[in-house]
Amino acid sequence: xxxxxxxxxxxxxxxxxxxxxxxxxxxxxxxxxxxxxxxxxxxxxxxxxxxxxxxxxxxxxxxxxxxxxxxxxxxxxxxxxxxxxxxxxxxxxxxxxxxxxxxxxxxxxxxxxxxxxxxxxxxxxxxxxxxxxxxxxxxxxxxxxxxxxxxxxxxxxxxxxxxxxxxxxxxxxxxxxxxxxxxxxxxxxxxxxxxxxxxxxxxxxxxxxxxxxxxxxxxxxxxxxxxxxxxxxxxxxxxxxxxxxxxxxxxxxxxxxxxxxxxxxxxxxxxxxxxxxxxxxxxxxxxxxxxxxxxxxxxxxxxxxxxxxxxxxxxxxxxxxxxxxxxxxxxxxxxxxxxxxxxxxxxxxxxxxxxxxxxxxxxxxxxxxxxxxxxxxxxxxxxxxxxxxxxxxxxxxxxxxxxxxxxxxxxxxxxxxxxxxxxxxxxxxxxxxxxxxxxxxxxxxxxxxxxxxxxxxxxxxxxxxxxxxxxxxxxxxxxxxxxxxxxxxxxxxxxxxxx
Length: 499
Fold this sequence. Notes:
Layout: H1 22-25, H2 30-54, H3 62-66, H4 74-98, H5 103-106, H6 109-120, H7 130-136, H8 139-152, H9 158-163, E1 174-178, H10 185-192, E2 199-200, E3 207-210, H11 220-223, E4 227-229, H12 232-241, E5 248-251, H13 258-266, E6 272-277, H14 280-293, E7 298-302, E8 318-323, H15 333-336, H16 351-369, E9 376-381, H17 390-402, E10 405-408, E11 429-430, E12 441-447, H18 460-465, H19 477-482, H20 491-498
Parallel strand pairs: 5-6, 5-8, 6-7, 8-9
Antiparallel strand pairs: 1-3, 1-4, 2-3, 9-12, 10-12, 11-12
């Protein structure tokens, strides 16, 4: 007999997700309801990713979108998005062949992709929901269309068909950074060691390495902000800037905020950090990250860094700037799961897009160099392209020199350096997407009269030449071995550019 007691109302769907109609949710079991909303959460994420990809516009990675606070069923949503993207070329072929995407369903295209994946390739699960019912009525048509695709592609089964699209597997260690504002490395080692094999990283302090595919999204230390899931290359950026407690620092392009809160930890929560972010939607993620970290010295500003006036009195004490501008993301394509996106192979040759990105990057770096009190600037990208890296640095060297800046070697213990395309590129830092499983680029500018240059430890010849910029570092083998500086006036490089 049916239980007529009043049912407890279900929680509202997460913000940003197209809410299921009343007809979809009435009399659904808990499992059915959970699956229904997971498909709609996945469709929202998929729409954002595909729209950004089609517009050649940088968006957050799939993981970042899924692990945002607005997504409740993170594990199911992440799996659905990844699996649907993996099968997407096949799904599109099948839907076109079956003539399923009519004018009504076209408005919910991403949700149709998600449901089509469940119908064609997933295990038998409940497909409650209005759109699900519409597609289930066409299940035979979808299966017949899939059979035709197999014949057309000359393969025997779905696994062989998928192999035509499947990318090369690149297992990558999972890195977590201990948030020293809330915990310490020994506590994190103890807690994480109960479930995983954990090692200390040998380059970045308070960074831990776990085996590939370690699932940490619901680990208590992650949920309470004691550790942040953050790649090694990303963690090297704030470490390269190395701000001191009590400083005033600016993060020019902050969201999602992992580097911002890393700065706060390095500063022990003291001083002031201005975190700039132009994108209104990404501001929410940035604010969530800051709150989770427990950092009280971060001031989030919804603003365009390029529109800030360096001579404004409120910036008169800014001593360091971290500039991690929008880039192609080519160095972390595997981490972002970009290999699952359509036409991803063509991105490397999209010179028009790279040139637009590089133009913005040069403008942003030039702007950072104009803040009068700044002593240290880190420019970083998660790109492997020379256009966004060495070429950007080379283009601003004369301007940097005119403001008294020189390139200095960040994290000297790291062996991989910049491409040898100009004199001084050995001061740049690179990580390799094959050897290091991700491709990052870091350049560190330091003002020549900065306290970070300890002239007492330099040879007398070097010390006497700092004020003139005439010292020939190539002839000084001792300094060359230490890789501390490059010529201050960049005379040879400037002459090269004039030609």
